[in-house]
Amino acid sequence: MTKITSIRTRVWTWKGPTVPPSGNFCTNASDALWIKGDAMASFRFHQWLTCEVETEDGTIGIGNAALAPTVVKRAIDDWYAPLVIGEDPFDYAYIWEKMYRRSHAWGRKGIGMTAISAIDIAIWDLMGKLVGKPVFKLLGGRTKEKIPVYYSKLYSGPVEVMQAEAEAALKDGYQAFKMRFGWGPKDGMAGMRENLRRVEAVREVVGYDKDLMADAYMGWNLDYAKRMLPKLAPYELRWLEEPVIGDDVAGYAELNAMNIVPISGGEHEFSVIGCNELVQRRAVSVLQYDTNRVGGITAAQKINAIAEAAQIPVIPHAGQMHNYHVTMANTNCPMSEYFPVFDVEVGNELFYYIFDGDVAAEDGFLSLDDARPGLGISITDRHLAHFDITE
Ligand SMILES: [Mg+2]
Predict the structure, then answer these.
(1) Closest Cα partner for 213 from 260, 177, 175?
(2) pLDDT tens digits, residue range 129-158?
(3) 65 φ/ψ angles, rounded to the nearest 5 degrees
(4) Which of 46, 104, 268, 317 is catalytic?
């Protein structure tokens, strides 16, 4: 038995160049506010948290989190790390329950569950390294030769720009694409037409033999979404993502029951019980938890079992190795979201600048190596000059 001896957290703040987003980049929850200010501020994030869990033999497992890194760091340093130090990493399910139950009054969603996720992912990476196997092998093994990915970008902008981006992605071999909506309830019928024009324009480029998805990132409301669904029907979207805010489970269920466009969501849901509600109420047709928010790999595997039994596919939010390993090990996870490698824009891309080992898509697929233990990533110093790091 080897014991966990320390947990090191670091917040990485990007200070390098960023690509400024355009005005109608993507709708989001702040659009409903009276004074919007920089509404996109709640969407962009230029910080990341790394969480390294070390055992007495010097092996280090790496976890990470992207939600509110400075606050999550405090939660880990002050609350969770003392609960985990001294434990055997192979008691991962017990450690998870200990973290969950000792913070239940405040930690079961949001910051607490994000902190639990970062530690849990690090523990899985650690276990893989300790036994010399990739994490997907510990989860049940390979269910696919390669993982199909969908190209996730196409932020709302000028029609020609979106079409050129879709064209380039198509040439790169992607078989599925996700775009973002730029207009919401405050923009009325004219905004609806702008949204529809862009779906039509992207369809024009990728055709109807490929999957196309569209994301409102919680920037619509139930009334607006109900009016949009029939208008979207002709474009045969594989799914409409996060039409309403994360808490409005009844809204998701109502929209999904309309059976016009499949509804997806879950990247802002937390824990096994939270996701179970989405599944049991048939609130989503595709479940999109993010392993580094939902409770880590330990929770993800339990959620996968629930979703599989209900025949609801799981396609985790965001790329990243913790999601790819879970996807590889589950038949019910048909593909992965993939953020193309790009200059820093919304912040989704930052992990490429912090870690080495994140696999790149080729011809619309990515491969996981049987010979790389753990998650297969390491923290890189390639871009250190562009980060402020808080220990
Ligand atoms: Mg999304």
Answers:
(1) 177
(2) 999 999 999 999 999 999 999 999 999 999
(3) -150, 150
(4) 317
